[in-house]
Amino acid sequence: MRWYSWPVMALVGLLLSASLCRADEAIEKLTFMTEDYPPFNYVQDNNLKGFSVDLLELILKKLGSKKTRKDIQVHPWARSYRLTLKTPNTVLFVMTRRGPREDLFKWVGPVAASPIVLMAKKERNLKIRSSEEVKQYHIASVREDIAEIVLDEYGVPLDKREPVPYPELAAKMLEAGRVDMWAYGDIAAYWIIKQNGFNPSEYAPVYDFGSAGDNYYAFNIDTPDWIIERFQTALDELKAEIEENGQSVYQNIIDRYIK
């Protein structure tokens, strides 16, 4: 067995300590930004909430950071996007990871998959077996939303669609029976149904168009890879850690907002 002198061991310890300090400083320099996009991230009663916010706070805690949700800045999407694109040490969430953006940022996630679905009331007992059958029903959608683009791609006739300016209106129309279905992201749809005082357990997706792109934490492209790796590892651990109810920490956070 090879023995090292105390001076050598002390030097190794000092170097390791200095390296860890630099790593901590690099994480503390990060500026986190988000927008108002429930249930992922939103402001309610002057408090920042949402499951992407809760997850980030736990990730930062795992990494030993002193940062909390109070350090997260809320801006309009376009402003935050430009800043994260051009400014080192910036992070924007949540961002849909799609082809044109792939090489513009570095990514940690997914925070959540958000497939576009057709949401309906369970009591209707609707059964959709193919995309062609979708065209038979009256469907609510939100103007300029990704789900509206999906309906275009699947050839759903305009006379079968009820475009509205806000998702809350679509939820109310579905509850009142004025439409058969609502095309929207499933996680956001459940949250909006719940926030409008309706029972989420009375609704279910009857058709899944698939994901328009999963949602991630997007880091400025110049962020060191080791920072991305540490954040990704912390998120993966939250998805793997099982709590007393048999679900992961990650799943329990999501369920608090949609069930």
Automatic annotation (TrEMBL):
Residues 1-23 form the signal peptide. SMART domains: PBPb (SM00062). Transmembrane segments: none annotated. Pfam families: SBP_bac_3 (PF00497). SUPFAM superfamilies: Periplasmic binding protein-like II (SSF53850). Residues 29-249 form the Solute-binding protein family 3/N-terminal domain. The keyword Signal applies. Keywords: Signal. This is ABC-type amino acid transport/signal transduction systems, periplasmic component/domain.
